[in-house]
């Protein structure tokens, strides 16, 4: 099957997904910070207040988050970072 449009990520509530980032330089856990910005498509002006935009900081491997969305570091080597993004779906209701 060949797609005519660019593929899009579909996220189901409560189902995490992994992201592999290739950076332009080595990632240093002690001093570098990464955040993910997610927006709902089709919204003219996404905003945090309307729940159509969320900023998710990358947390260390064993960190727990109390936020609805969380991004946790899985692995980092050279200029590659692997993160797992997940939602606490029961808080989204």
TrEMBL record:
Domain Transglutaminase N-terminal, first and last residues per copy: 5-87
A Pfam family recorded for this sequence: Transglut_N
Database matches in Gene3D superfamilies: Immunoglobulins
InterPro entries attached to this UniProt entry: Ig-like_fold, Ig_E-set, Transglutaminase_N
Superkingdom of the source species: Eukaryota
Record-stated family: Belongs to the transglutaminase superfamily. Transglutaminase family.
Name the record gives this protein: Annulin
Organism: Diaphorina citri
Lineage: Eukaryota, Metazoa, Ecdysozoa, Arthropoda, Hexapoda
């Amino acid at each position: 099957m060949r797609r005519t449009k660019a593929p899009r990520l579909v996220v189901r509530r409560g189902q995490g997904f992994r992201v592999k980032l290739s950076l332009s330089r080595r990632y240093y856990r002690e001093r570098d910070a990464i955040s993910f910005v997610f927006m709902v498509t089709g919204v003219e002006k996404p905003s945090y207040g309307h729940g159509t935009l969320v900023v998710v900081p990358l947390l260390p491997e064993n960190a727990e988050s109390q936020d609805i969305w969380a991004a946790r570091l899985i692995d980092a080597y050279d200029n590659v970072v692997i993160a797992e993004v997940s939602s606490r779906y029961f808080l989204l209701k």
